[in-house]
Amino acid sequence: MTVALETRNSYENFVLEKDIMYFRVGEHGLVSFHGKNFHIKKRMSTEQIIEITTGSAFFKVNTDCYVNTHKIVQIQDGKVFFEVKGADSKYTSVTKLRQYRLKEIVQQHKAEAAKK
Fold first, then answer.
1. Partners of 75 in the beta sheet?
2. Where in this chain does the record put each HTH LytTR-type domain (predicted)?
3. How far apart are CA 103 and CA 53, in angstroms?
4. Percentages (nearest 5) of helix, strand, coil residues in the chain
5. What is the DSSP letter of 15?
């Protein structure tokens, strides 16, 4: 009997909350998704953009950028880091106004994870 293994192509069929660290919404429905080792640009409808930007997994850090609050490792000096801080780390900037609220959300996630 032959068993075919189902492989998932993360470049085309990514899971938003699991694979994406942050995304940027551009003009004319162009959204740029940034993962650990890739980034993809996709055209999306207005309804799709509203759906992903209003979800609870992502937080708006500036005018066009939303970060995955479960993937954040550190917030420091106006930057949100998603991996080990250093030369190879992925990060995006956050406004000072939103930095405080984002830190609160990350602390809540850590507290919830510690309870489990």
1. 80
2. 18-104
3. 19
4. 30, 30, 40
5. -
Domain ranges of the chain: 16-115
Q: Enumerate the β-bridge partners of residue 41.
A: 32
pLDDT in tens, 71-94: 999 998 899 999 766 667 889 999
Q: Is 58:73 a contact under the CB 8 Å cutoff?
A: no
Token pair in block for residue 27: 């003009």
* Contact (CB, 8 A) for 59 and 67: yes
- Element at 101 (helix H, strand E): helix 96-115
Looking at this protein, which amino acid is placed at residue 91? Y
* Cβ-Cβ contacts under 8 Å for 47 (sequence gap 6 or more): none
Q: Please report, in angstroms and rounded to a whole number, the separation of the first and last CA atoms in the chain.
A: 41
Question: Encoding tokens for residue 101?
Answer: 């609220």
* 16-115 CATH fold: OB fold (Dihydrolipoamide Acetyltransferase, E2P) (2.40.50)
